[in-house]
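Incident review: delayed structure delivery

Summary: a single-chain prediction request sat in the queue longer than the usual turnaround. Root cause was a stuck worker, restarted by the on-call engineer. No data loss occurred. The affected request and its eventual output are reproduced below so the record is complete for anyone auditing the incident later.

Affected input:
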Amino acid sequence: MSNDNKCGTWVEHFPGNAKWSNAIQIVKGMAPWGAVSLEEVDRVAARLNARVGEGDNDTAWKQEWEAMADTVAAVADKADAAGHRITAGDHYMRAGNYYYSAERMIPPGDERLGYYKKAIRCYHAAIERLYPNVEPVAVPYEGKAMDAFFMKAPGVNGRAPTVVIFNGMDNCKEMSVIFAGLEFAKRGFHTLAVDGPGQGATLRLRGIPGRFDYEHAGTAAFDYLAGRADVDASKTAIMGYSFGGYYAARIASFEKRYAAGISLSAANWDMYTWQLNAQKNRAAGKPGHANPFQWRWVMGAKDEADELAIAKSFSLEGVVGSITCPYLVTHGQNDKVIKVEEAPKLFDAIGSKNKQFKIFTAEEGGAEHAHVDHRQLGVGFAADWLAATLAR
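Output delivered after worker restart:
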């Protein structure tokens, strides 16, 4: 049973606007790592609520998040010029998240790319100043490359267990390396946070769209790590969150060198029906949680017919039965983006004899999509499971 009302505006910050409410949850979910200020988020939300009646609401979203990002980035630039690197880094991190939030509502094109470049300028300036243990890397991939960050666990010498993380459909490695990389690092794991095909810089700057057979990206990531002297390849795991839950399960099904796998939120079992319903809802004027252009852009589809053709390939039926490594599936009880009923379909079909299933409830937290309402709880659970699993 849903317990949304207990969470008040945290869950439905903009009543009647599922897209905005979901997007601001993602922003607020980065708070445990100092990547946002909840007071700044509340200020932006108040301004947005005052503009709800405007004809093009997504323009308001873009403008208000950009205004806050500009303000915070200016403080960062001033602090940096004065030699206050940590203060600058703190502000750059928040500005990066705010620019990235503004970018998500803009259709693909030059304007969106401009916002993305503002975001990564700030994100990267923050990471350089706050996390010297993070190394930007290019993972060789089919004659091209995938952009990634390698976060080394502080104080760990020699070869160490490592987690490969692929983002969801709306996320980027800059977010993943912070909210997940830091939690794994505390437990002695290195992290390779990857912008895979259809994600982050690999999509925006390299023009590489998504694909259903993500094992190709997973193999490329493993091959890269196997060549590093600081990685224990025998204890390398794969994790994906949100739509990345599909990618991780697909990778673990085919790339047998991974020692364990995690879907931090299951993906839709039937992507064709999900996309078909999304098209029907748009035609009926019923907005959803996602932007109408997102799937087409991420997958490099030409039109609505092509969107559906691509979606037909995105199925784990008859695939995940071949997973043999230990595997964890988690999901939120109140997930409104991918209904909780989708999660047991994935778990039950996984072939591994060593698998675990965890549904987070509203009472304990982590009940929203990809545990964004208590992201630290969700990723902490996954990290603890992985540490125990690889120690056996």
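Verification: The radius of gyration is 20 Å.
Action items: add queue-age alerting; document worker restart procedure.
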